[in-house]
């Protein structure tokens, strides 16, 4: 029997949300009659004082497992390179910036020299100005050319909101330059009547990789006057381009470079990123070009106090009687309430839209018990809001009218929210880079800041709050992406051929896998070779072959049965587990029951309901080894990496009570199996190793299954992934290895680089996994160590002690290098 752990699908339950009375750490006398903090309120307190007040009250102090103090840092200044136009320097000075920080001047120098450069410095370190000064200078030079357009620049952001925010910043900064700089946003929201003006007259176009892929590159003849003089391509927040999405963007950029060469331009790439490990290497894989790194942060920073916070255990029990901790959602709502009472301007980051709304509602209810006017000073901020609503929230936060905001990662990237005093992070966001990005939202004006990571009941979160060195003594992760993934590369080769027929000269640009893929695409009648070039053969748009953010397959539309109203969509890969018949589906705070799922038409019909239960899909998974790329001995066992085929079938679903998680019943389902060809890391153990670990046949399945769950939970610490990006299978006797085997695989066709990263860091990864299980306080296993929220087998069987002994024996034989 195989015990599986799927990469996507099951909703993460919030668990119990019982909120105890608010702990009033600050007397109401600290507020002025207007409702704003008076001058001597805690808004003026140091970060440590704010934390001290949060920990006042019964059992509060015990919840802080570690406090890290980051001392203030003084600025190091430089002068702008002399080749920056004097008008641009004057515009920057009129914005209140007399001298650049050293890293800004250095990055600008590289850009002026025609070298692609990545600025990888901390949040609020002025990365935008580092690339804007050479860009504005070049646009000013170009405006004096005889044709009036002269030079153009392209800006790419991962989100529409960030592009719009950057346009406002550019307009403000470039206002003294008059019409020499003409910024314009070009994305899916740009009105049709404005698009032609952007193509013909804008010289700084702000867009996103999706629009570049679907809108600009396929229509390149209409963009020829923009592409011909293209001097700079700015890629903002480039650390977000990782995994399959990053691999797609890498190929989109290669297509852009190819078209630029066709029109006679060779743009310089300017990349900006939160501090990242090996930023130059990641930037080179993304762009396909040599990139110079600027990572020495010369910006000033106020004192930062970073606390790790573990919610307490409740009296409730979950699966198999495991103890249940208070949810990070409930704990964060309480902390946001207390900070608001203190007058501390704060943002609480949460992973889901539902969580953001829930935290704001809970905080508002608790604040209303203190003072109804305070309840109006907390709100939610998430994707899906109208732009004017989003800007109003940002302005209210700036002005101090709004004291607390519960936000998704929509607020994480780049958008200027200076003036915050504290950040709460409800659950580890998946990577250290994202953690520091969120924490950096506070203290952006140079003042001190408080950051609090509130742990979820999850193996990784529990490990981190008890092993602070894993956060504070380690560099941020390397960005993992694989542009050569054939599932990614193939549709982009088709798109490139539709733009301009592919020739042998293009093989090097698109990577070593291109030569092998072209004959396969020709055999599939997608491409046809004529003389020395491959041509797109179909009438359909080749760019529509792939959604660069999608999971593959047509999304399933969720439709309200009674009205025909479209509620939203679900990725095809998640449909079987989330919108099967009988599933409970959540949408914008409302609960729906799925009445039917039509896989042929990709439609799920739902009706609004209030069931007293949640649903969890159960499935079976089989995995077969297709090819072993590399393997190394771990004593008598082996550690391997290669290609696998995963066959998964959802067979039933459980109904569980909302609060206790008690199983109310199981319903069978008749859904077709799905197959996934991907990449995996796996390890085997021999009978001698099992004997040494005292793992007998009765507990072997549970020990392997527990080790698999915990290792999946810990992998995000070593690769830039989320546990929902990866899956696993454990088998007491696998037919391909003929040994007990644990597999961890990428949950994307062709792989995403996560399993490869796991293979190369296996010793450290599995050591941390063993520590996470062994250090957990529970007796037989719980969500903090070996239970998984997405286990297809209902967390059966699991054996905690067997997993610890098995990993201990395995690691004794692990190679040291």
TrEMBL record:
<protein>
    <submittedName>
        <fullName>DEAD/DEAH box helicase</fullName>
    </submittedName>
</protein>
<dbReference type="InterPro" id="IPR001650">
    <property type="entry name" value="Helicase_C-like"/>
</dbReference>
<dbReference type="InterPro" id="IPR018973">
    <property type="entry name" value="MZB"/>
</dbReference>
<keyword id="KW-0547">Nucleotide-binding</keyword>
<feature type="domain" description="Helicase ATP-binding">
    <location>
        <begin position="108"/>
        <end position="294"/>
    </location>
</feature>
<feature type="compositionally biased region" description="Polar residues">
    <location>
        <begin position="31"/>
        <end position="49"/>
    </location>
</feature>
<dbReference type="InterPro" id="IPR022307">
    <property type="entry name" value="Helicase_put_actinobac"/>
</dbReference>
<dbReference type="Pfam" id="PF22982">
    <property type="entry name" value="WHD_HRQ1"/>
</dbReference>
<dbReference type="InterPro" id="IPR027417">
    <property type="entry name" value="P-loop_NTPase"/>
</dbReference>
<dbReference type="InterPro" id="IPR011545">
    <property type="entry name" value="DEAD/DEAH_box_helicase_dom"/>
</dbReference>
<dbReference type="GO" id="GO:0004386">
    <property type="term" value="F:helicase activity"/>
</dbReference>
<dbReference type="Pfam" id="PF00270">
    <property type="entry name" value="DEAD"/>
</dbReference>
<keyword id="KW-0378">Hydrolase</keyword>
<dbReference type="Pfam" id="PF00271">
    <property type="entry name" value="Helicase_C"/>
</dbReference>
<feature type="domain" description="Helicase C-terminal">
    <location>
        <begin position="335"/>
        <end position="487"/>
    </location>
</feature>
<keyword id="KW-0067">ATP-binding</keyword>
<keyword id="KW-0347">Helicase</keyword>
<dbReference type="InterPro" id="IPR014001">
    <property type="entry name" value="Helicase_ATP-bd"/>
</dbReference>
<feature type="region of interest" description="Disordered">
    <location>
        <begin position="26"/>
        <end position="57"/>
    </location>
</feature>
<dbReference type="Pfam" id="PF09369">
    <property type="entry name" value="MZB"/>
</dbReference>
<dbReference type="InterPro" id="IPR055227">
    <property type="entry name" value="HRQ1_WHD"/>
</dbReference>
